[in-house]
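Exercise 7. Given the encoded structure of a 219-residue chain, write a plausible sequence.
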């Protein structure tokens, strides 16, 4: 599988602190970036937001608005999930990449990282999806993994797909294993099953009993 660092891009050089706002506005009009890295004497100083630039004085320079620069970045050694987290937290479609000595080496584009995600076994390999919900203080990643593996299942990946102050929603992808046994074990451990499964004997039994009761009441 391709390593994420192979997606580091250098197609466009960073904005310089002495560039005019008019030049930066023209750049953002041409390119659909939400942000872009800014450099001063070869040092990354932060990213400037296209939305902010629209309100700035065209005759001034980027340096005049240094206080608006956003300092997010990733390392070239960061894993793709860490990179994706930076994209999400900063609501950006571009993230600067620095090496271990803080030297700027390029940037990631969100479209490329999503493409990389599509090549991971979590999405690429065939398998079944199970969506769980449990109290945010009560769930355990190690317990989730143990439940799947103790039922002879193979876990391709899991992620926190939703979370609030009380509960967390976990999405699993399982390539092999008796889905019904896995689901019933999760129920015994207090996990709510949000996804629907044809193999779910518990739900099937409830449906059969409901259908029988409907027929009985209609007699």
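Solution.
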């Amino acid at each position: 599988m391709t390593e994420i660092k192979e997606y580091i891009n250098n197609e466009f050089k960073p904005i310089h602190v002495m560039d005019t706002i008019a030049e930066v506005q023209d750049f953002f009009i041409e390119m659909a970036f939400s942000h872009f890295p800014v450099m001063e004497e070869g040092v990354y100083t932060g990213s400037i937001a296209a939305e902010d630039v629209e309100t700035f004085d065209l005759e001034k320079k980027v340096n005049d608005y240094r206080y608006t620069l956003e300092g997010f970045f990733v390392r070239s050694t960061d894993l793709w999930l860490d990179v994706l987290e930076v994209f999400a937290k900063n609501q950006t479609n571009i993230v600067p990449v620095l090496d271990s000595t803080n030297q700027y080496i390029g940037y990631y584009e969100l479209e490329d990282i999503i493409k990389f995600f599509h090549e991971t076994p979590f999405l690429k390999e065939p398998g079944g999806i199970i969506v769980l919900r449990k109290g945010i203080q009560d769930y355990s990643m190690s317990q989730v993994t143990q439940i799947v593996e103790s039922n002879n299942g193979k876990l391709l990946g899991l992620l926190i797909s939703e979370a609030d102050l009380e509960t967390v929603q976990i999405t699993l992808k399982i390539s092999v294993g008796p889905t019904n046994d896995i689901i019933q074990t999760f129920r015994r451990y207090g996990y709510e099953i949000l996804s629907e499964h044809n193999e779910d004997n518990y739900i099937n039994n409830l449906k059969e009993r409901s259908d029988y009761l409907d027929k009985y009441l209609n007699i």
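Remark. The longest strand covers residues 154-163. Students should compare their own answers with the one above.
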